[in-house]
Amino acid sequence: MKFARGQIDVLSYLTVFAVIAALSQLLFLALAPTPKNAPLDMHAQARTVTTLRLGATNAIFNTLAYGAFFWAISHGDAVRATVFLELWASVFLVLTMIYRRGEPGGFDHHQGLPTTLIFLAVGICGIVLISSAKVAAVTGANPGVSPLDTSLTALFSGVAAPVLMATSFMFGTRNARTIAKNFLLVCQLPPEPHPDETPTEAAQRKQINFVAGIYHGLFLRVWATIIMLCVTGLAWALFDWRPQLGTADFVFFAGICLCALISSTGSTLANIANNLSSSSNLNMIWAFAPFLGILFLRAFGYADSTPSEVFFGAILILAANFMLTTKTPHSIAFRFAILAMCVLAYVVLFVPPMREENAVQYVALPLGVFGILAAFFIDRVARGDYGSDPKTEPAAMFSQNVFTLWILGLGSVVTMTLFRETNVMSGDMTIVILGVAVVYMCVLPIERFMSPLTRTEDDGELVHHLIRVGLSAMFLLALFVLLLLAFVEADSAL
User: Fold this and answer.
1) pTM
2) C-alpha distances out from residue 152 to 8, 165, 208, 245, Å
3) What are 331-364's pLDDT values in tens digits?
4) Helices (H), 351-386
5) Closest by alpha carbon to 308, among 492, 475, 128, 179?
6) How far apart are the first and last CA of the chain?
7) Which sign does the torsion angle of CA 387, 393, 399, 403 carry?
8) Among 119, 116, 112, CA closest to 329
9) Would you tell me which of 73, 202, 241, 323 could form a disulfide with 235, CB atoms 3.0–4.6 Å apart?
């Protein structure tokens, strides 16, 4: 955040950052374990024309990304620039969907392509919502630039940073996998694991991918250092550039070193994780960085508010992460319920009621009838699934039953939502809880009618079911905790 206060120029910081990061990568490589049974010349296979070219390309885009990021900080809103940068993971996922279809490191559609597209859009909406939230922050601007020019420059730089960073990571992960293939070749291991692979071979493969991930970061930082030294040298000789430091105290330089070490360590862990994983789905976790970034900025005094939009954006990001990263197959009813959770949370947080009137007395009876009807309906469909006789209920009768179910359930939730009391936290939370349950119970009979159930007595399958239930419960609990925090922030802002 020293950039927001004009304590150091962008070029000086990038140079120091690159040097410290490169030294840290050399240390990581020295401490990394050597794969078992690896030949002595294995590390020499990391330096080929292809890997050096990919490393240089990676470094160019990475340096441009950090340059755009720090320029946005020094010419605009520090919080928004920080949050914008973290959009790179979403851009990276889109790039892997387009350019790595069916390849290692591509995106796996665990829940199907339609669900991927829907919840990826939900996650991106969450990140954009957090990015656009009105968070009061420390800002800094160049006094020689007009406010309009400053705003446009900061906006352009902030938008360019995640695109450049995602492109950099595309080249970097490609380089890591290329290095890993070279190592596997000299260790006489196949490029991809096979079912008959021994535990020793599997462990050796993991160690090779681990070391290759570190080489990815090493090539990036060394090339970035070379680039920055050349740029600063040319700027010094041709444009009379000189470092601009507002202070020279020990704490300031220690902060620069710490920032470089933290960033280098974090990127190294990301490089290793992506090289060990066969898909890019795990990068969805990075979408939480904007949310965590704002929380840390507030904790350290760089932002003095956390509006409810930030917590709602975190709800959307969490929903997208859970649906796209878990390999557990989710039912259609569950997917609709999570979407309903997001929609209803948005309505009760940001959409005012049509009339300030308590509608509980209007929906108690319809919801009671809905519960009885849904219980009998779902039970009948489930019994038909488990039985040996085929379903004999006419399609017209089934559709009429579904229509009645939806009228009672969804009609009650819509009525309660449109005619709710204003700024009543307990009522808003009740609407969301009831709405999610109603949507789930409305969709479940249709899903069960279209896809019959199969009974299993396998103990191992039962354990998997219990694990899935536990993960789903933790996920839903986290969603409601975030929603409660959003209500609290909205209430305190009144």
Assistant:
1) 0.72
2) 22, 20, 45, 25
3) 888 888 889 989 988 888 888 887 666 666 677 7
4) 360-386
5) 492
6) 30
7) negative
8) 112
9) 241
